[in-house]
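Lab notebook, design round three. We kept the backbone fixed and only want residue identities now. Task for the bench partner: fill in a sequence for the structure below.
Input C-alpha cells:
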C-alpha cells in the first residue's frame, strides 16, 4: 500500500518514472482548499521528500483551474471554533515550511484562478509556470484578515516591496503575463500549453544531478528561511483576525458578491 493511497482530495499520479503529479481536486468548488484539502496540502511535501522513487513533483489543479482559494465554510469554522483555528494555523505554517524544506524540486502549473493555500504552494514552488491569462490574487485583506499565509515570506523577495504592498493591501489581481514581468512567477505560456511545459521542465529536472539540484534548492531557500520570523508574525496576525469583527463582514460580502463594508473602530485597526 502506497502512502499516497490515504490522500482523498489530492490526486497523486506517477506520470513518468521519478515524476509525481499532485492535482488539487475539489469538484464543484473550483479546487478551493476546504478542510480536508488544506490538511493534505500541508502533509504531502513531507511524504514526497521521504519517497526515494520521486525526483520531481508537479503541482496543479483539476479541470483547468488551479485553486479558487480558501473554502468559506472553513473560514466560518475558523472564526467560530478555536480548536479549528489553531489546527489550521499549524497546517498553514507547515504547508509553507514543508514546501521550502522538501528536498525534491517542485514545479507548479497554474491555470485559471490561483488563490489561497494553493497559491501559497504554487508561488513557493521552485519553478512556477502560469498561463498568460491565469488570475493570481491574494485575497486576505478582502476577507478582513492580514495577508499572512505565504505572502510576507515570498512576495517581497520575488517582486519587491512596492509591488507586494500594492497587490497584497489592495487585493489587486495579477494576470499570469503580468506576474512574469514582475518576477512573481518563473515563466508564462499560453493556457493550452501549461501542463506540457510543466512536464517538459520536470523532465529536465528529472534528468539532472539529484544532489546538485537538491543542494542548490536548499541553499537558495535559505533566503526564505531568513524571512521565517516575518512569515511567522504575518501568520499570527492573520489568524488573530479570524477572531475579529471584519472577518464576518468579509465572508458575507464574498457570499453576497458585493463590496465589504468594514466598520471596526479606528483604534482597533
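Proposed sequence:
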Amino acid at each position: 500500500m502506497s502512502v499516497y493511497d490515504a490522500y482523498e482530495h489530492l490526486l497523486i499520479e506517477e506520470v513518468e518514472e521519478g515524476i509525481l503529479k499532485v492535482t488539487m481536486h475539489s469538484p464543484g468548488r473550483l479546487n478551493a482548499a476546504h478542510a480536508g484539502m488544506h490538511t493534505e496540502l500541508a502533509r504531502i511535501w513531507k511524504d514526497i521528500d521521504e519517497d526515494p522513487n520521486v525526483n520531481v513533483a508537479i503541482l496543479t489543479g483539476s479541470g483547468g483551474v488551479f485553486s479558487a482559494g480558501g473554502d468559506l465554510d472553513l473560514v466560518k469554522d475558523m472564526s467560530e471554533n478555536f480548536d479549528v483555528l489553531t489546527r489550521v494555523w499549524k497546517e498553514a505554517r507547515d504547508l509553507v515550511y514543508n514546501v521550502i524544506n522538501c528536498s525534491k524540486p517542485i514545479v507548479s502549473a497554474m491555470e485559471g484562478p490561483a488563490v489561497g493555500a494553493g497559491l501559497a504552494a504554487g508561488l513557493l514552488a521552485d519553478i512556477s509556470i502560469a498561463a498568460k491569462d491565469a488570475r493570481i490574487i491574494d485575497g486576505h485583506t478582502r476577507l478582513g484578515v492580514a495577508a499572512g499565509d505565504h505572502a510576507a515570506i515570498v512576495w517581497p523577495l520575488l517582486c519587491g516591496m512596492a509591488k507586494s504592498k500594492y497587490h497584497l493591501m489592495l487585493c489587486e489581481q495579477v494576470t499570469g503575463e503580468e506576474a512574469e514581468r514582475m518576477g512573481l512567477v518563473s515563466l508564462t505560456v499560453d493556457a493550452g500549453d501549461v501542463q506540457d511545459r510543466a512536464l517538459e521542465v520536470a523532465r529536465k529536472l528529472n534528468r539532472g544531478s539529484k544532489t546538485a539540484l537538491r543542494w542548490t534548492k536548499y541553499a537558495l531557500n535559505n533566503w526564505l528561511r531568513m524571512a521565517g520570523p516575518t512569515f511567522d508574525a504575518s501568520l499570527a496576525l492573520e489568524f488573530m483576525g479570524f477572531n475579529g469583527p471584519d472577518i464576518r463582514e468579509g465572508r458575507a460580502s464574498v457570499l453576497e458578491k458585493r463590496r465589504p463594508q468594514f466598520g471596526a473602530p479606528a483604534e482597533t485597526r
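Keep this in mind before ordering anything: DSSP finds 13 helices and ten strands in the chain.
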